[in-house]
């Protein structure tokens, strides 16, 4: 995990002066989100009273199930409660339809826009003492634009009489400067912790010369313009397809990776295969006013309701949320407890080759806190 390396870097709100009793929004969403978000809540309840922290919780709705019930995937009340009452939140998973449904769009994408959650930080790290390959990278994904702005259209081509679908890819200088800065700040903190750091900018500018070309240009400019601050961080670039190849062949070559929205999404999900399962990879959606922890896995409808989903990604995301809110010590406690569970290799869910239930894993981790 990131340990204390990036706490307080991304948020501009003065969390250090905020009340120690924090209000946390709980948004299970769909599928196994309803099983793993309670795990994050149990961890926070266990930490309550420790490190001077106390937590209050607000249950909130969002997702495909909410859309089917109310006609809205992201109710306005959920947005307002997060904006006005919560310092942090935990988001589970969304089960989105594979075909177009009128009026439906992903609530997590909408939340990122509504709350200004411009960075999705996804650490992928193996645990020493396990069978996983040595991996220790942080994928920093721009969270607000690229193809995820969801500007699509379908029309009939007059020349052929057949349908054509088009999607707009947006890369802006403002968003790119913002994501490059947090990625370099993370690299700088890892330099202080590890004694070395590398930033790898991932793009496809050999084909997308304007959009990805701008992303590449601005990332380099942020680095070059702040050489006095970031000069000791090594700077690299990698075309996204060769990045995928190298990531699987030699993951030890990568430290901090910054990428546009789509590439960051794909790279981080693929990197999960290096550490055993998507069920162990966390993320934090970071903005200026709030941090939302979110496991990288999906809603997994094939196992939903069976009580065997892996809670570790959510528990680690809970630690990330606390870390970005400036509470590094309890975050480290969470990371150590999870690492101890994985190192012992006894209590684990089926995705990691075990036969334990979700709650058995939660209880084992709680016993190690």
TrEMBL record:
Enzyme class: oxidoreductase
Organism: Torulaspora delbrueckii
Gene this protein is translated from: TDEL0G02180
Gene3D superfamilies assigned to the protein according to its UniProt record, in alphabetical order: Isopropylmalate Dehydrogenase
Cofactor: Mg(2+)
A Gene Ontology term for the protein's cellular component: mitochondrion
Biological processes per GO annotation: isocitrate metabolic process; lysine biosynthetic process via aminoadipic acid; tricarboxylic acid cycle
Protein name: homoisocitrate dehydrogenase
UniProt KW keywords: Amino-acid biosynthesis, Lysine biosynthesis, Magnesium, Metal-binding, NAD, Oxidoreductase, Phosphoprotein
Domain called Isopropylmalate dehydrogenase-like: residue spans: 23-365
